[in-house]
Amino acid sequence: MDYYSASFEEDLDKLDKNKTYFVYCGSGFRSGNALSMMEALNYVEAYNMLDGLAEWKALGFPTTSD
Fold first, then answer.
1. In this structure, is residue 25 part of a structural domain?
2. What is the DSSP string of 20-65?
3. CB 41 within 8 A of CB 12
4. What is the domain range of residue 21?
5. Could you give the number of structural domains in the chain?
6. pTM here?
7. What's the confidence (pLDDT) of residue 14?
8. Would residue 54 be called left, alpha or beta, if left means φ above 0 and alpha means ψ between -120 and 50 degrees?
9. Is the pLDDT of residue 63 over 60?
């Protein structure tokens, strides 16, 4: 989902709030904000990747690209 989309929070509100979500971005800032929105929308289980993909890669963990 596009965090910068004008309908981002509305789009979040349409998802199944009872599923588990893992939220990430490049640095962890946008995903942290998204997680706050999800909490306000009463999601049951959502997690944020702290420090984002940049830290993930710096630690040597694998990534894939399409």
1. yes
2. EEEE--SSSHHHHHHHHHHHHTT-SEEEE-TTHHHHHHHTT-----
3. yes
4. 16-58
5. 1
6. 0.84
7. 97
8. alpha
9. yes
Tokens of 16: 């199944």
Mean pLDDT of 44-52: 94
What whole-number distance in Å separates Cα of residue 13 and Cα of residue 7?
A: 10
Tokens 């599923």 belong to which residue?
A: 19
What are the distances in angstroms from CA 18 to CA 9, 38, 39, 44? 17, 11, 12, 5
Q: What is the pLDDT of residues 13-30, one digit of tens each?
A: 999 999 999 999 999 999
The answer to whether position 1 is within a domain reads no
Tokens 């939220």 -> residue: 23
Say how far apart CA 15 and CA 6 lie, in whole Å: 16
